Amino acid sequence: MYRTHTCGQLRMENVNESVCLSGWVQKVRKLGAMTFVDLRDRYGITQLVVEESAPEEIKANVAKLGREFVIQVKGTVIERASKNNKIPTGDIEIIVNELNVLSESEVPPFTIEDQTDGGDEIRMKYRYLDLRRSCVRKNLELRHRMAQLTRNYLSNLNFIEVETPVLIKSTPEGARDFVVPSRMNQGQFYALPQSPQTFKQLLMVSGFDRYFQIVKCFRDEDLRADRQPEFTQIDCEMSFVEQEDVLEVFEGLISHLFKEVRGVDIPKLEKMTWMDAMEQYGCDKPDLRFGMKIVDLTAVAKGKDFAVFNDAEYIGAICAPKCAGYTRKQLDELTEFVKRSQIGAKGLVYVKYNEDGTFKSSVDKFYTEADLKVWAETCKAEPGDLILILVGPKFKTLPQLCELRLEMGNRLGLRDKDVFKPLWVVDFPLLEWDEETQRFYAMHHPFTSPKPEDIPLMDTDPGKVRANAYDMVINGVEVGGGSIRIHDSALQSKMFDCLGFTHEAAQAQFGFLMGAFKFGAPPHGGIAFGFDRLASMFAGLDSIRDVIAFPKNNSGRDVMIDSPSEISPEQFKELGIQLKMEN
Amino acid sequence: MYRTHTCGQLRMENVNESVCLSGWVQKVRKLGAMTFVDLRDRYGITQLVVEESAPEEIKANVAKLGREFVIQVKGTVIERASKNNKIPTGDIEIIVNELNVLSESEVPPFTIEDQTDGGDEIRMKYRYLDLRRSCVRKNLELRHRMAQLTRNYLSNLNFIEVETPVLIKSTPEGARDFVVPSRMNQGQFYALPQSPQTFKQLLMVSGFDRYFQIVKCFRDEDLRADRQPEFTQIDCEMSFVEQEDVLEVFEGLISHLFKEVRGVDIPKLEKMTWMDAMEQYGCDKPDLRFGMKIVDLTAVAKGKDFAVFNDAEYIGAICAPKCAGYTRKQLDELTEFVKRSQIGAKGLVYVKYNEDGTFKSSVDKFYTEADLKVWAETCKAEPGDLILILVGPKFKTLPQLCELRLEMGNRLGLRDKDVFKPLWVVDFPLLEWDEETQRFYAMHHPFTSPKPEDIPLMDTDPGKVRANAYDMVINGVEVGGGSIRIHDSALQSKMFDCLGFTHEAAQAQFGFLMGAFKFGAPPHGGIAFGFDRLASMFAGLDSIRDVIAFPKNNSGRDVMIDSPSEISPEQFKELGIQLKMEN
Questions:
Q1: Which of A97, B138, B280, B369 is most buried, judged by most C-beta within 10 A?
Q2: Which superkingdom heads the taxonomic lineage of this protein's source (chains A, B) (predicted)?
């Protein structure tokens, strides 16, 4: 037996017990003729003492110990002279009377401590050492706990977890599908699922009624900072439901997680329409941790001598509280910020509503104090506030105002990671027009149902059709999204028409699903949560990478195992493929 | 709201309530002017009644109903005149006062009933309809329940479920790896894991201490009747353990599952050495539901005039109780059975130990009654028993005797699916000699540790080295297997030497794992259970296909979605590959 206790277990009540511990050497300190060793495992740290009177063999062994050696010790628990109240085992220590080195360690390439000297790259290469740091391991423990809580919560509500296949079918529209050549069916390929969408809908057709799965999904896309080629979803679907039923169940799940994991009571979630979210926050994932809503000044700011405003489709503002004292330099920084390529505003207009009630703006030559006062009133500004204004086409300017608002939230420290403000965004448009390809695309996916009252608009003004679609948004992050699906073949055909699919294309891609709908499909709907993102938010982290045991880098590489890599000529031959790369 | 209750919920205490149900039409029966409809969902079946006095609209609607239509009804619960005690809702029925057709159905290609008229092929093509049959759905409900029980059991023991990557590295030995071309790293490939073996060992190096994962694994091999290209494992690993620790934990898990799922108390598992299993049952996965152990007659049956026996390395027998009355035809059948190509015995010798104490055998001209009596005593045969004998090289004959024993077990009805006899098979050989390639292969995998006392044999007689490896076997099926791993780089190198790996080959394949071992690896070991097989055994099924929602056929095809399939020229171009098939 390698241990009687873990390194996080012993307390005052164990004093005088003979124990056996195993773990990693965190630190060795000599104090006169005594040696102290911090022994670490997943459960904690326990202090070992090798006394001057210890057998020579032990003293020789302890002298050889280095950081990260794996050792087993036997000894007696005693009360510590100087207690360490920072760790749960800090009242005791172990007088060592046997010490075995189970495994030596070279000097690790970085220190295995919460505050490490290792950079990102080296920590990724030696990820197995990075995972030893308790701050990293705790993220994965939290993730595990959230998965367990989710599974138990949904199982108790009669949801069944069903494993859907990983080797599925590549579809012509699946531009970002990973594909897998088949050896038994040479020349043909499987695809890895971007989501189990069609399978979960088939399960509803099968009468499974309530399905969920915590499941890996795959997307071969250019990786932005916080994407991974393989990611995990909490994927769910329900039958005989309307939108309200789905929202209620999954609001319950998220509230349960907040309560259990963070000890937070989340009030009933606000429902905000997509249009309100856009107009008030400039995006479909508003951060409600702070106000500073966008105000439409179009009506009040036009009609003077300022051509830029008069010619603009839309004039929008935010009011930054207590920022009227911003310096020239600070205002220049904000102007630079909104001009950045990702945001792309042409310029920024500011109005300082000074504490003394006067106004100072960058458009003073076009507007009187009385004009500016009207703006301030429209913005509900108080003396001391700073009004920031952007103009342009409405749906181009709103996202710019969104970015500006978030930046001001950051500057004012209003985006506390320990505050959580979830909401539902509802009534998304069904379709999105793409200028480049001159066609509509499904905003969620082609199975999303239109609101019944908007169905006639599919023929006359498809862009105006609202969907039975919803996103859950927390602190400006979309953590989940879903919809009530179409369950009627005729309506599904109409949808494919709107998307410009030929009958043949629709049949080739989704024939099996449309076929299934012909044998009695129940009304159904569902949702999928991004589990990596949800876990990273609960852990208070910025990146999903930190809640993934073995993540890939921005080029989709696992630098630890050096993958992807070349394959052998035999493998090419068996698969019936060869390379054909363009230089 | 689509329903107030499910179709399995209503009882006598609901009589007079107004309810709303939704579900599938299982059956429509007319009785005079009344119509009875069986309405089905996942939870049960409820009888609806449309009375003669019902509104004309309802009567018109009900007249149009066909099997598998999805309908919603409102009505009042009443007590049934003729109760049906076969279903839980059999005491009541619903007088329908509103009926909405939610979705029509074409006539399904087979009947959606436990006893269906659909053949395998049509049911696979319309798997979403096959899954409506409650006997099929129940298998997946059981699978879900087993997964939940497993996760909660292991979590309660401090195991953490960690998701390991699906896109990993192809290795030169990974002949059966599925590979995935990378778009961002053209010319390079990921591989899908055949198991998370190296990652779970890295997690032990990381100090995770107790890991598990219910995880999809992939193997591109020719599919025998009961294999799937993607399958699910309960994958586990523990640190600071010896073999006994691992066996105890996972015996606990399996006992827990038997208790909860099947209501069966499993006694402490027997441990049988690999050699005993081979000698007594002819294989490393003995079916202990019945005796009929193999008896070695080599010593007692040689030395007479029968050259076949005298020349044989090994003479083995089983004693089939109460089969002395077997007819010529039955004995011929058995002879044919053992001569089948998969078994490949040259012939079968029988000895009837008649009820009257006399003997009749196929070798009467070589052996006296006294000779045969000695055999019978060696076999512990009773009058009325039939002794069946095979001869040949020992380790070729034992598997033949195993097959014969199982066949006799089947014929005698000794392999009851509701009886479970699990055991541990231990002390497997570390290495297996392959005649064809003239080298040793790891019997489990190259990370399995040899028994410490056998390490010297690695240099002198590698084939004799026993491993710290173990399988859990239930009813003749290997449901799980694992080992204590090597955690020492030097011993791991020695192992690679035994396997004939060059240093470079070992480094290229497992360099990251061997590198990790240099930074303090704890002693560790683990196990993986075949979850599909375990679930199918608990469900009393013959095939793992029946516990998989969307299985593939023997050619690795999903005939429902028609996958694998061709991919587009754009996909080939982006991936930098092209076809090169040989005709």
A1: B280
A2: Bacteria
- Min Cα–Cα distance to chain B from A190, Å: 5
Q: What is the pLDDT along chain B (583 residues), one digit of tens a residue?
A: 899 999 999 999 999 999 999 999 999 999 998 999 999 999 999 999 999 999 999 999 999 999 999 999 999 999 999 999 999 999 999 999 999 999 999 999 999 999 999 999 999 999 999 999 999 999 999 999 999 999 999 999 999 999 999 999 987 666 789 999 999 999 999 999 999 999 999 999 999 999 999 999 999 987 776 889 999 999 999 999 999 999 999 999 999 999 999 999 999 999 999 999 999 999 999 999 999 999 999 999 999 989 999 999 999 999 999 999 999 999 999 999 999 988 888 899 999 999 999 999 999 999 999 999 999 999 999 999 999 999 999 999 999 999 999 999 999 999 999 999 999 999 999 999 988 888 898 988 899 999 999 999 999 999 999 999 999 999 999 999 999 999 988 899 899 999 888 888 888 878 888 899 999 999 999 999 999 999 999 999 989 999 999 999 999 999 999 999 999 898 999 899 999 987 6
Identify the residue among B134, B210, B558, B563 best suited for mutation to test binding to A, counting A beta carbons within 10 A and taking the highest: B563
* Residue in A with minimal Cα distance to B186: A581
The CATH number corresponding to A290-411 among 3.10.150.10, 3.40.630.30, 3.40.190.10, 3.30.1360.30 equals 3.30.1360.30
B42 assigned binding-site residue: no
Query: Please, where in chain B does CATH 3.30.1360.30 lie?
Result: 290-411
Residue/partner pairs of B351-355 with CB below 8 Å, 24 or more apart: B351/B375, B351/B376, B351/B386, B351/B387, B351/B389, B352/B324, B352/B325, B352/B326, B352/B386, B352/B387, B353/B324, B353/B381, B353/B382, B353/B383, B353/B384, B353/B385, B353/B386, B353/B387, B354/B324, B354/B383, B354/B384, B355/B324, B355/B383, B355/B384
**A533 marked among binding-site residues:** yes
A530 is annotated as contributing to ligand binding: yes
The residue of chain B nearest to residue A203, with distances taken between CA atoms, is B128
The alpha carbon of residue A146 is apart from the nearest alpha carbon of chain B, in Å, by 11
Nearest CA in chain B to A182: B564
Gap from A57 CA to chain B (nearest CA, Å): 21
H or E element, residue A408: helix A394-411
Torsion from C-alpha of A567, A569, A572, A576, nearest 10 degrees: 180
Q: Is B221 annotated as a binding residue?
A: yes
SS3 state at B345: coil
Task: With CB atoms and an 8 Å threshold, state whether A520 touches B24.
Answer: yes
Q: Where are the alpha helices (DSSP H) in A206-312?
A: 243-257, 274-281, 298-301, 307-310
A279 is in an annotated binding site: no
CA atoms lying within 13 Å on the CB side of residue B112: 32
Mutation to test the B interface, candidates A565, A570, A572, most B Cβ within 10 Å = A565
Which class is B137-272+421-548 in CATH? Answer: alpha beta
Q: Which residues of chain A neighbour B570 with C-beta distances below 8 Å? A: 175
**CATH 2.40.50.140 segments of chain B:** 12-103
Residue of B nearest to A169 (CA): B563
Distance from CA of A4 to the nearest CA of B (A): 11
Contact check, Cβ <8 Å, A70/B245: no
C-alpha dihedral sign at B360, B365, B370, B373 = negative
User: Is CATH 2.40.10.10 what the domain over B12-103 is classified as, yes or no?
Assistant: no
Spatial distance between the Cα atoms of A463 and B274, rounded to a whole number of angstroms? 70
The whole-angstrom distance between A156's CA and the closest CA on chain B is 11
Tally of CB atoms within 10 A around B12 = 12
